[in-house]
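Lesson 9: reading folded outputs for more than one chain in a single document. The general rule is that every protein is listed as its sequence immediately followed by its structure tokens, and records are never interleaved. Here is the first one.
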Amino acid sequence: MALLLLCFVSLTEGRELLVGGKTDAWKISSSESYSLNKWSERSRFIIGDSLVWKYDSSKDSVLEVSKRDYETCNTSSPIAEYKDGSTKVELQRSGPFYFISGAHDHCQQGQKLTVVVISPRHHKMISGAPAPSPSQFEGPAVAPASSAAGLGGGLVVAVVVLGGLFLM
């Protein structure tokens, strides 16, 4: 029973994902072919995952905002504001999340991110399908964390299955 509980806990641990897949991604993109939203569209975010931003806190910040503030680049009433240069936001619910730069005019120049978070149950049902579009949801979304947790969960499942075979 304890092993089964351990398996469940391990499978539901979130991952930590570096925004944009690299440490210097939270900036105005120098290329129209690459944007943070293109990175987000290629990724799958599950409840419990965390987004991690690395940036120069003397020049920038991360604002979590409503969909309307995201679309209009309004920085005056964020849901949350992060200024530490190494920001970690846990995605605790399903749906879209909206983030913009707090630096003057950066959002208008494309420094913003939408992340759509799905529940672990839905992730298993649609694991081969493309990531959901933010337009399919209303409200904020959540982000995933590193891939190490997924590997650990798979190892626990293998141990449980193999252990069960030997007990039979």
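And here is the second record, again sequence then tokens.
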Amino acid sequence: MNTAHSTPYHSGVLKLVDVVVNEGDAYSPDTGIFTCPLGGLYHFTVHMSVNGRAQCAVFKNGESLASVYHTSLPDKCSQVASVSSVVQLSEGDTVWVNLWGHGRHEIIATEDNDTVFVGFHLGSVSSHPQSAVMAYDSSSTHGRPVAFTAKMNVDDSYPKHSGVLKFATVLVNEGGGYSADTGIFTCPLDGLYHFMVHVTVYGRGQCAIFKNGEMVVSLYHTNLPDKLSYNSSQVASISSVIKLSKKDEVWINLWGRGRHDIFATEDNDTIFTGFYLK
């Protein structure tokens, strides 16, 4: 994002005009839109520097896929909020970062503080049903990927249990490794995988990425009320590359006692995503 485009007042497409890499020339800094040149699975992430309030989403063909609402009020300190998703695209489909809501969006960029939109191709989509485990030709760069993105249901907000956090709304599940019923990803293919979780927190959130019952990486995020009893919605993210063997299990694990202030709304997502690397 260019410094001159900080704190936009408009809704709609957020243009990120300073292009670092654009292999394939699919992203247009003039429009802020990525136009798919090759059908398949892609992974998109947006990292926003926020100094107040920010509302945006990753859009595909005019529909919201993954949305975030982050506030750093009342002190208006600079914070970073992120959201990502695996997306299935056909040639000609469009993806962009979309601002929603009214008034000024306090999304900023400075020489030392960037707002970034990034995406890359994961592989071709299988013709098999998502419930089937696919064969992957590791000797070919055109092998079919294993990838998923799942979102927390609104009704599952503010869980009071410890253990597995379920993400019941599945956007993509290529390879059939993720189970919405259990919240667990079961590895269908040996290799390296990248996993990321974005949790929307309104108070206190404690969770970790687990592999086979052992913690890999963990986060603890609080935005508890101050003296003015002000509370705000914020996003906390964590990720890891994990080496897996077939049938290894990965999930998001809640830890600690009492209610977890992790939630989802129609415009504010909590997301678990992962994909095969090599």
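What the second record shows: Residues 128-142 have pLDDT under 50 and may be disordered.
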